[in-house]
Amino acid sequence: MTPKILILGAGYGGLTTALRLQKELHYNEADITLVNKHDYHYITTHLHQPAAGTVDPRRIKIDLDELIDKDRINFIKAEVVAIDIQNERKVTLDNGQGLTYDILVIALGSEVETFGIEGLKEHAFTIRSINSVQLIREHIEYMFAKYKNEPGHPEYLTFIVGGAGFTGIEFVGELADRIPELCEQFEVNPKKVRIINIEAAPSALPGFDPQLVDYAIEVLKNKGVEFKINTPIKACTEEGVTLADGEEIKAGTVVWTGGVRGNKLIEMLGIETMRARIKVDEFLRAPGYQDVFIIGDNSIVFNEEGRPYPPTAQIAVQQGEHLAKQITSYVRNGKMDLKPFKFNLRGTVASLGKGEAIGKVGNRKMTGYTALIMKQLIDNRYLYSIGGLPLVIKKGKLLG
Amino acid sequence: MTPKILILGAGYGGLTTALRLQKELHYNEADITLVNKHDYHYITTHLHQPAAGTVDPRRIKIDLDELIDKDRINFIKAEVVAIDIQNERKVTLDNGQGLTYDILVIALGSEVETFGIEGLKEHAFTIRSINSVQLIREHIEYMFAKYKNEPGHPEYLTFIVGGAGFTGIEFVGELADRIPELCEQFEVNPKKVRIINIEAAPSALPGFDPQLVDYAIEVLKNKGVEFKINTPIKACTEEGVTLADGEEIKAGTVVWTGGVRGNKLIEMLGIETMRARIKVDEFLRAPGYQDVFIIGDNSIVFNEEGRPYPPTAQIAVQQGEHLAKQITSYVRNGKMDLKPFKFNLRGTVASLGKGEAIGKVGNRKMTGYTALIMKQLIDNRYLYSIGGLPLVIKKGKLLG
């Protein structure tokens, strides 16, 4: 009887696993099911662009039926509401459906971490999905229109971005590029617009090469972005934010990019978690389980120095590729011939908006155009890996 | 000593007066001052288009310095805060400036009339200026984005338009045209969108030819617009509206087009007013004053049957033309040779959105394309009258 492979989530990790299996396995070798909340995949690493309004959200969306061969993968558009790996080995969906499995791949992606900061959940926008960034874009334009009707409210033109990690930095860079366009459209004096990036840690882009961080800050300051580093946000209200040092900043828009955590469903698996993520074994398995794999933002993998790799698209994709190989061998040989997963850091690039970026590949630091090209290479390599040349042609140029 | 002519307002009436005088008089014959809140004039009869988002608001804006010859007209960008025609013969501006005059032309346009309906001022949008319609457009898009993030709130996609007069009818026609575009952009099922036009009077377009009104309603119903005629709105809240019959309709957007009144400054002149408008004498003068003229939406002119003409761009323009002639003769002959003003109704056309309109010229009724062409003729005739051929070429095609 053909083994049932159940993949939860069509983000970087889950989609890569599914598409690799689709390529490797013949339609009769395994019964593959992919569950995802939306019927599309999106380029999460570029959400900051439609959020700022510089790119149409539809451009970073990829319909799953463009990628999935329905003869080989059974796709279910639904939300996972419960995962029981301990007793019934069953996954429950919001449509009431219950799914069993021989091999389970959990790749549900991350959720926003607000660290319990008061009012953040209620009043801050987050860069987490196509819908959430569309809302940010529309809200920004709405604030310009409101300011034109109530010029007595300069705070409508103040945009606070909480968090100066990759998403925060890439978003403020993009937003700074959008502002002149909005000022022209609404006939607003650009001097009246403020973009304030607030970071609790002692540095922006924590953990990134300090020299490159300085470069990034310089570039963004020249674009008009203000920074408050080493400044925790204490609370967020309808009116703006209150900082730990007591300062209050009025703002019509607060976008929170300050943290991600795993998935609440991960916390209900009955396994020890760190911020809703699970420390998987070297074979990407949930500790104590032979047939439950956890990848992407739901998993934690440690490097040689024993520090966890940050959750990135890059590691999720490599996990998916690795896992697909293992599952294939299992399907073919009845048993899983296990190989330990090794993350190969190909490089890290952060865009700073039009024409600017910073990046590190191995020990090589790059800035400006070189870094941008590097980013485009990484993007296109991924598009190629999931959709081949047609997808690169269709979406590639639009990114980076 | 050259007479001081002071014109308040650069809408249809005031601008026409100023531009006719600029054409007629030599720069040394009179000292003409034009005061306006903005440094631009706008095509009020087309505000419903940028409100719906089908036309860029900038397209219906005309910078005054494109029309005004600074050697002949002294333009002041300021808001009028007080008019004293009884004692000091002085007009006070929000910049503190005080202006005297030999001839005063009051053409300050209308304000929104809410008939004291509870909550309307606070919660309803109004189609009254470039800025106010830009806000409506952005709000509509924002509601689509909000719905995508909170699908449990269908009311975000309900758009209530209070008033089925010309503005209301033209707006719902335009909005109905915009919806499919928005549904595609935000990937929303058009069936979920509601446009409800609510009118207190027993008929839409009160006073307009019943046969044409029926035609209009048919066209708009086919575009998906719902009508509640003979249904007064009792109250407007953040959640929507309550009707006189007690029905509550939840809506994320309420646009009020149900009425206009003159200007609060008119009510402070010490002359009897009807809804902040003044019944001028046959020479367009404020009753009891030789040198104070009131035109456009601030004035009331009665027809042969003793019914007041509705305030329209058409009558305002004709008043301006008439007044300019009188002022010219006054400047030339020292005394005003007065001619009674006769309104010549050239025709009335209401657009119903893309490709559809209704109109009446004399006794000739027209619909569809014919009516649209008629509308364009009227629009272009006006553009020509204020800006000549260049303006027709620049803006003409964009309208209608």
Structure, described:
Chains A, B: One of its GO terms (molecular function) is NAD(P)H dehydrogenase (quinone) activity. Chains A, B: Pfam families: Pyr_redox_2. Chains A, B: This is NADH dehydrogenase. With 400 residues, chain A is an alpha/beta fold. Chain A has two domains: 155 residues, FAD/NAD(P)-binding domain, CATH 3.50.50.100; 199 residues, FAD/NAD(P)-binding domain. Helix content of chain A is 31%, strand content 23%. In chain A, the strands form eight sheets. Chain A has a five-stranded parallel beta sheet with strand order 5-2-1-9-21, with helices on one face. A five-stranded parallel beta sheet of chain A has the order 11-18-12-13-14. A three-stranded antiparallel beta sheet of chain A has the order 6-7-8, with no helix packed on it. In chain A, β7 and β8 form a beta hairpin. The interface between A and B is medium-sized, with 17 and 17 residues.
